[in-house]
Structures are given as C-alpha cells and as structure tokens.
Design a protein that fits this description.
single chain; alpha/beta; Alkaline Phosphatase, subunit A; two-stranded antiparallel sheet; 20 helices; 40% helix; globular
Length: 470
C-alpha cells in the first residue's frame, strides 16, 4: 500500500513528468487548452459499453416510453457535443478498466491492471485527492464494488487493481465526501486480511455509514460525509433487482444513489467532482447476458436523467458521459421477413426475470440437461430446446468444443441460446479495441474535439476548474 505521505511526496516529484505512449498519432482536433473555470464536474461512465449496447437500450426506451434515451436525446437535440475517444492503455490497444480509469484519473497511460502507478513504480496523483486539496467536495457512485477498477482510478494508487483491501484503505485515508456502491467485503473486519473494521472506522471519523436503501433515504442533508455499501459484492443486475422484492426494498438503483450524491455534494460551497459508474454493463457483456446488459444500460440512462435534471438551470457544471472500452460487441441482428421481427425479438427481453449469472449461481454441476432446460425456460420464459440444453450441459463440464474458444464456455453457450430467441448475440467475452462514445456539455465542453485521446480529459478537468497538480 502507498501511504498518504509517499503519495504526496512522489506525486510532487512526478506530477509534471513526461510519459511514454504507444506512439499512436495524436488527433489534430483533440482537447484544446481550457482556460475558464468550471465549478462542478460530473463524470459518468457506462463501463464496457459497446455501440450496440447503447443502441439496444435506446431502442428499448423508445419502445417502452415513447421517447429517446437521455443519452441519445442529447445528440438528437444538439445539446451535447459528440466525440469519439481512443482508450488504449500503455501496453495494448485493448484496455482494461483500471488503465482506462487511470488515463482519466491521472493523465497518464498505464499498463493494464495498474491503478495510477507507472511501469517503473511512478505514483501519479489522481483527480479526487487533487480536487479535495483545492477545497472541492468529491464523490464516487457505482453499481460495482466501490473498490473496483473504475472508481479506484479516480482516487487510488496501487500496482494491481486486485489490491482492493488497500484501495478501500486509501479511500478512507483520502476522505471522499460521498462513497456509494457495493463491496462491503473489503470494509468488513471479518473479510479483510488485516482484520480492520473499515466501515466502522468511517463511522467513527464522522461519516454516515449506511447499509440499506431505507437508511440512505432517511438521511438529512446535514453536511456530514457519507459512505453507503449495499451488498457484499457488486450490486445485483437490474434485471434481478426488478424481480426480487428484497433487492427492491434494500438496494438503491444507480439513479437513487446519484440523486443523493448530487444533493449532498452540491451543498458544498466550493463545488465538487462526482464520478458515476454503471459498472455491471461490463459484467453482463463479459457474461454474454443480453437482459443484464440492456437493463443495466437503461438504469445508467436513468442516472443520466437525474444528472440532466440537476444541471438544467445551471451553467457552472461540466458533464462528461462516456465508456472506458467496448466489450463483446453485442448487437441486435435483423431477423424475419425483411428483418421485420427484429424489434419484437428485442421486446422479448422484458419476459426474462433473472440474469444469466443469477441462474448459473443457483445451478450445480450435477444437474442434468433436462434440469438446466427447465431452469432456463422458467427464468427466460422461452421454450428452450433440449439440444441446446445438452450443449450447455457439456459446457458446464468443460466438455463443449467450440470453434472459437471464447464462445464455448457456459456463459457463451447461454448467450447463444438466448440469442436464438432474441436475435442479440456477442462476438466474444472480452474487451474490444473500439473507440468509445464521448458526450459532453457545460463549461469546458467546447474545448473537446471530435476525436480525443483518453489522457486529455485529465488536463481538461484540471484546467477548466482551475485545480492544480502538486
């Protein structure tokens, strides 16, 4: 773990150091110098969102609510500036979430799996401590474990993203004002390697420390910092949340958490920075789970709606909406006569009541193919074919032989089975090299070009707010 003293000392030495790149051509219209001052920054990340994910969620929202998604609505009305962003890491054109968040968080390209630490141990000061030192409030909201790669990229310095005990301790030491998400296990004395009751330590140092949606909603806006941890692991997928009463009762949505965070942070006199992550979009893509993917992207869009309502009458807030990388590149395939069945197939997601992950966690390896078929039929409402259940049965025993290995796992087979009913398929189960969507509005957004390098956003956020590096 890197101590606060070492962090500040090394950050001061290395803050202005040059950094190595992959030698990729810098876009001529990348982020230009920003000279104005922005009071607040809201940085929203749909983790692992491919273009197809954004499209399917928008189509579902249009079909269900008769309007565009909030994200696509910004494009349709011309309210937001649209760009594409190169998210390559230091060692690969395909980034992981740690290197991606670090590129925004410290302005350097980092080797995959590291968090704001260079290949030779360089410690790069991340955004939230810099904003806090400048007197601004800071917050992190996520549907993943709070210590996961994307939120960590804005606050922590570790050599490997797996060091989540250390990331949790750094969150305590660096004192963010609002911390909301999952991952109680890394704050629990019975689960941490050092036996420290980190959740209790937050409470003893003056934080509201809450565990349920009811406790969160009962809080007054008294100015005290807040930590809310609502699940031992990542928060449940939205598709599961929609159909399990206990989840609805006890676990807030991303929009719920975002609203609370904005209420509390906006009361601070000198402005704030808030990162909001829809992190389970990425997990659903890894797991080839169409329902998990689309409904979590829709939940992220609900959070965008909360933010747009917050900034509707303001001219002091820079909003960034983006993704850190593509993942598995899902898409809705055209099916039927003249592709006429495509939308009807997408609508079938509404019939699914459990994520693929939830189903797999409730299966055992000694289940028969018939039992697997019955379970999938129950929770998807599709009449699963026995021949498909037999392929899944083989995959669960590592006996399935797919031509493309990534699609031979039980998650890959489940995704393909559901694709046979919905037309939604995936190309694999891993991150992709896609350039990502970048929407921006508010003061500072006018300086963002149409093709951006990931590290440029760090500079933009500092310069537009007047925050200084050590």
């Amino acid at each position: 773990m890197i101590s606060r003293k070492d962090f500040l000392k090394t950050g001061a030495l290395l803050g202005g150091a040059a950094f190595t790149t992959l030698g990729m051509r810098r876009a001529a219209d990348a982020v230009r110098s920003a000279s104005g001052k922005t009071r607040n920054v809201i940085f929203m990340v749909s983790d692992g969102m491919s273009q197809g994910t954004l499209t399917m969620a928008d189509l579902m929202i249009r079909d269900t609510h008769g309007r565009a998604s909030h994200w696509m609505g910004l494009y349709e009305t011309g309210r937001a500036k649209r760009a594409m962003m190169d998210m390559a890491s230091l060692n690969s054109v395909v980034t992981d979430s740690a290197a991606a968040a670090s590129s925004w968080g410290c302005g350097h390209r980092i080797v995959n799996n590291a968090v704001n630490v260079g290949p030779n141990g360089e410690i790069h000061p991340p955004l939230l401590p810099l904003f806090k030192a400048a007197g601004k409030a800071t917050g992190l909201v996520t549907t993943t474990r709070l210590t996961h790669a994307t939120p960590a990229g804005f606050i922590a310095n570790v050599r490997n993203r797996s060091m989540e005990d250390e990331i949790a301790m750094q969150m305590y030491e660096r004192g963010a004002d609002v911390l909301l998400g999952g991952g109680m296990r890394f704050f629990d004395a019975t689960r941490r390697r050092d036996g420290k009751d980190l959740f209790g330590m937050f409470a003893e140092s003056g934080y509201h420390a809450v565990r349920t949606k009811g406790q969160l909603n009962a809080l007054g806006n008294d100015g005290k910092p807040l930590i809310g941890l609502f699940y031992h692991e990542h928060l449940p997928y939205t598709v599961d949340h929609r159909h399990i009463d206990a989840y609805q009762r006890d676990i807030p949505t991303l929009a719920d958490m975002t609203k609370v965070a904005l209420q509390r942070l906006s009361a601070k006199p000198d402005g704030f920075i808030l990162q909001v992550e829809g992190g389970r979009v990425d997990h659903a893509a890894h797991g080839n789970c169409a329902a998990g993917l689309v409904f979590d992207q829709m939940a992220f869009d609900d959070a965008i709606g909360v933010v747009l309502e917050f900034i509707a009458d303001r001219d002091d807030t820079l909003l960034i909406i983006t993704s850190d990388h593509g993942n598995a590149n899902p898409g809705l395939n055209g099916e039927g006569n003249n592709y006429g069945d495509s939308l009807a197939n997408l609508r079938k997601l509404n019939k699914i009541t459990r994520s693929n992950e939830w189903m797999r966690e409730n299966w055992s390896k000694d289940m028969s193919a018939a039992q697997l078929r019955d379970s999938m039929s129950t929770y998807t409402t599709f009449d699963i074919k026995m021949e498909h259940a037999e392929i899944l049965h083989a995959a669960m025993r590592d006996e399935n032989r797919a031509i493309y290995k990534k699609m031979g796992s039980n998650s890959g087979v489940m995704g393909q089975i559901i694709a046979s009913y919905t037309g939604i398929n995936f190309i694999g189960d891993a991150h992709t090299a896609d350039y990502v969507e970048l929407a921006s509005l508010g003061p500072g957004s006018e300086r963002i070009g149409t093709f951006v390098r990931n590290t440029d956003l760090f500079t933009l956020l500092l310069e537009s707010t007047g925050v200084k590096t050590p």
